[in-house]
Write the structure tokens for this entry.
Amino acid sequence: MRIRTITKASAIAAAAVLATAGTAHAALLAEETFDAGTGDWTEYGATIANDSGNLLVTGSGENYGTYSYYGGVASSTSTERTTALGDGYVSEIDVYLDPAVTTVGEGFDLSVAASRVADGSHLRDFIFHVGEVTDGRLLVNGSNNTDFVVNEYKLLNENGGDFYDVTDAGWYTLQHSFYDNEGVLAVDLNLLDAEREILWTATRSNAGDAAAEVGGARYQWLMGVDGSFRFDNQSLERVEVKPVDQCGDNAWEAQGFKNQGQCIASLVANEKAGR
């Protein structure tokens, strides 16, 4: 288990949001710190092990990797999949990245998928791409599709070529923030540093995904794993924002956030800091 830290600046920023916006609460649905064992993660082509309180995932190229139902919270028999989107939900997991250790072609994809509220069926995947490209850079990008292998084209070209270049070794958080954006599902893929400052973000949204038809999370899935990577601090939280306009109606912009998902994520971070 790695102990997360929150900087004074981050805490002040989160407190300022609450002071100007009212009361917020994030209901923790699932948490796995990998103190011992590998939680409910299931091998599906990659191997998993507990490495000094971390989830160690190792693969050698094209594979389905390993997946988790957040300790069963998002399994096919749970009610999470048919729970309405509401004020949204946030999924997180930490990963240790070191550009000096990874080699060209190594990396992984990380997906969190949304369900349809009516029947819990699959709606859409929202995927981080992490991998080292030919010129030796370790990049982070995101899309809605995977090739079950590290794809250099996606790393370089998704989101108009707006990727993040990882230059420092350390712990990072891969955060999915799901929310209702004027009646349509939007998901912010946020990359946070060890002090929970947002380094990079990309918003993925499809006009056909009406927020009223969106349910909860289905899984967290690592795929196309090439190399060995350590993960920690998996969590799934439902956001309960009161009043609802704390981050909506462009309130997030007035508070200095890049998008609504970052505003929601800050409320969740503040809730965690005080838990």
Summary: Confidence is low (pLDDT under 50) at residues 6-23. The chain is about 15% helix and 45% strand. The helical segments are 8-21, 152-161, 251-254, 260-274. Residues 183 and 211 are 5 Å apart (CA to CA).
